[in-house]
Amino acid sequence: MIPVMRPWLGPEEAAAVAEVMASGWVAQGPRVAAFEKALATKVGVPHAIATSSCTGALHLALAALNVGPGDEVVAPSLSFIATANVIRYVGASPVFADVDPLTQNISAPEIARVLSPKTKAVIIVHQGGVPTDIRSIRELCEPRGVAIVEDAACALGSSYEGALIGSHSDFVAYSFHPRKVITTGEGGMLVTGRADLVDRLRRLRDHGMSISAAQRHESRTPVIEHYLETGFNYRLSDIQAAVGIVQLGRLDAIVARRRQLAHRYQRQLAGIEGLSTAADPPYGTSNFQSFWITLPDDFPVARDDLMTTMMQRGISPRRGFMAAHLEPAYADVRRTMLPVTERLTRQSIILPLFYHLTESEQDQVIAVIEECARLSPRTGDIVAARS
Ligand SMILES: *Cc1c(COP(=O)(O)O)cnc(C)c1O
Fold first, then answer.
1. Rounded mean pLDDT of the chain?
2. Residue 153: CB within 6 Å of ligand 1?
């Protein structure tokens, strides 16, 4: 099977893990601190807080902003379910905004339609690595005192207006799940320029504790810690951080290769009428964490049938992004019209794309799509290929 994703993990990661084992310190400690520093430097942000997941990082951001019951948080429905879930973790209400059909991201005009006096924050998602137009959303939100949190789970290595995603707003969260561009097995990171909130974010990550385990370990005198508020356990381990440091060193090569393969998909699929693909917006670049195609409504083969055909040919695609408002867990959210979201979630497919994907494997994927594009919808027969 050609998988949708395969992480690039080598002997360097294994050696880094072995070193942590030999050191005797495996929980959050010096490697986590080094990983935080390396990522903060990479994306040009003063502070980074490593977490056990991106979901945890997003939760911490909303908690530090004191978002809670009675507040509304605007987010796209077209996203992995975690984007909506974190809003409920703090007791706030998700309000879904529709997305732009080309970037599959929320936009200032769509957010403006659902803002209310109760809106406390907006979660921007850089879906599949395609950057959202942050500037116009800041211009809408900042005068109204609405905070912005970036769900950049997929967008490490993507850029906006010439700078890597991470430095454009106060809270930006990444994921290191194996489906993302670099991985630590599980893991996440919150980056922030908010010096006034860093200590609280670190504390909330670690049970609300006044002093970290590493600090206690280093002290030559007894340290009695205190629990200043109800926190969480969102710590990353040094085992994971050691892997993350090596992975971060591979980021530029991974993104370069992904972009090369994405452009190859774009070129080869350009001849199929009405089919659109993931692409860079005018204001930034994507890491192409997910390379999607969106089928036109009159495509000869239904989306799910195209996926079945691919699987029969040894290719493992994924459906396009899910839409939270269509899931039972969110059936009680006030119904809003989300026509673009509903069309994209129904008509999109995510194609295999990873560092070690070969061009001949990619050609197999392209061949199935081209073949289905030439099928006559009524008879199912192959009609003459377009010249
Ligand atoms: C993967 C993903 C998450 C969750 O990341 P975890 O690290 O698994 O918690 C959140 N939001 C989006 C958009 C994602 O793609």
1. 95
2. yes
